[in-house]
Amino acid sequence: MRTRLRICKKKQNYATREAAILAIEQSNLILRPYKCDRCFQFHLTSRTKGKWMSKPQ
What we know:
By secondary structure, this protein is an alpha+beta fold. It has one domain. Helices cover 28% and strands 14% of the residues. It contains 2 helices and 2 strands, in the order ααββ. Strand 1 and strand 2 form a beta hairpin. The longest helix has 10 residues, at 17-26.
C-alpha cells in the first residue's frame, strides 16, 4: 500500500533506519520503522497487522 502524500508530509522524517530506531528506543511506544515510497526516508508506524514482528526479548 502506498503512503499518501499528505500523511507523509505530516510525519517525522528520519534519514536512516538507525536514526528511526533510536527514536523508537527513546519513546515508550511499540513502533516500527519503514521506508516511505514517497520521500524515500524513514517514518515510524504503530501498525502491525499483517507484518512479521520478532518476539520481545
